[in-house]
């Protein structure tokens, strides 16, 4: 029987039923719309995803904030009080300071619970990549029952194998975040250019290509699977979307037609 608990966070976008199925615990991150703060719980208890995306369409500008050390301590304490150690697969440190806060909380917990362990791992992942890592780790834990140290080493090795590519509808939020200029964003919108992004090895966001039209963008993503995939028929490919189920379904069809991976 394992004496530790795997923890992810809500940036991995894992639905609540799947978290329960795999025995994963999840730290809720916080976002703000207007003057109200919301915890992003996977069961959508504070705001449904449908409502969130509708507010974006209506012009809402959500802001995110770090999970502070006290919030992490409160979360870890509940698990430690159960007599379990913690392995936390944290949202990439390249996009948030939460990782540093989690490390500080883990250090504080080691002083308060000297017989227990909390290891914080920079997943270098975000969204569906974080889900891929967390679910793959949970499956390995259930099948092989590795020791705590074996599990930590296994996760650190697996992080190097995950690849994340995605396309965004326009450059509005890239401009807002300072990743492209206002002129670049305006030209791209006029020409219906779709930016292709990836998470770099350190979990940083990189604009890698620009394709005209969604079809060309999808063809580009499929080509990346061909070029970067190793034994793709044996690999699991997770497809995530931001309120775009039709396009996700189309991409799934293309990948299946090309016999590229096990699609989830």
Percentage of helical residues?
40-55%
The share of residues in extended strands comes to 15-25%
- Mean pLDDT over all positions: 91
The quaternary state of the protein chains shown equals single chain
Count of individual helical segments? 10
General form: globular
Strand segment tally: 12
Helix-strand makeup class: alpha/beta
Ends apart, CA distance between termini: 29 Å
Q: Describe the strand arrangement of the main beta sheet, using strand numbers.
A: 2-1-6-7
How large is the radius of gyration? Answer: 19 Å
Low-confidence stretches: none
In sequence order, what are the helices and strands, one letter per element? EHEEEHEHEHEHHEHHEEHEHE
Major beta sheet summary: 4 strands, parallel
Structure description:
By secondary structure, the chain is α/β, with parallel strands linked by helices. 44% of the residues lie in helices and 21% in strands. It is built from ten helices and twelve strands. The chain has helices spanning 16-22, 49-57, 69-81, 98-112, 128-144, 148-159, 172-176, 182-190, 214-228, 245-257, and strands at 4-9, 25-27, 29-33, 36-40, 63-65, 85-90, 118-122, 165-167, 193-199, 205-212, 236-237, 262-263. The chain has a four-stranded parallel sheet with strand order 2-1-6-7, with helices on both faces. The protein has a three-stranded antiparallel sheet with strand order 4-3-5, with no helix packed on it. Helix 3 crosses helix 4.
């Amino acid at each position: 029987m394992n004496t530790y608990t795997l923890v992810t966070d809500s940036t991995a976008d894992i639905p609540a039923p799947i978290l329960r199925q795999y025995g994963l615990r999840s730290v809720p991150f916080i976002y703000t719309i207007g003057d109200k703060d919301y915890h992003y719980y996977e069961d959508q208890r504070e705001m449904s995803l449908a409502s969130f995306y509708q507010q974006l369409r209506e012009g809402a500008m959500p802001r995110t904030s770090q999970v502070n050390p006290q919030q992490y301590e409160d979360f870890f304490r509940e698990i430690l009080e159960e007599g379990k150690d913690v392995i936390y697969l944290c949202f990439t440190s390249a996009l948030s300071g939460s990782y540093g806060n989690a490390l500080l909380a883990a250090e504080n917990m080691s002083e308060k619970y000297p017989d227990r362990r909390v290891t914080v791992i920079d997943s270098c992942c975000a969204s569906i990549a974080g889900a891929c890592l967390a679910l793959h780790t949970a499956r390995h834990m259930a099948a092989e029952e590795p020791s705590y140290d074996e599990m930590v080493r296994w996760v650190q090795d697996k992080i190097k194998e995950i690849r994340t590519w995605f396309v965004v509808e326009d450059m509005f939020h890239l401009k807002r975040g300072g990743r492209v200029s206002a002129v670049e964003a305006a030209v791209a919108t006029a020409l219906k250019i779709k930016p292709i992004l990836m998470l770099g090895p350190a979990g940083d966001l990189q604009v890698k290509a620009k394709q005209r039209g969604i079809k060309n963008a999808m063809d580009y993503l499929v080509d990346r699977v061909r070029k970067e995939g190793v034994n793709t028929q044996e690999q699991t490919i997770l497809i995530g979307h931001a309120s775009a189920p039709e396009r996700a379904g189309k991409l799934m069809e293309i990948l299946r037609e090309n016999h590229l991976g096990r699609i989830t």
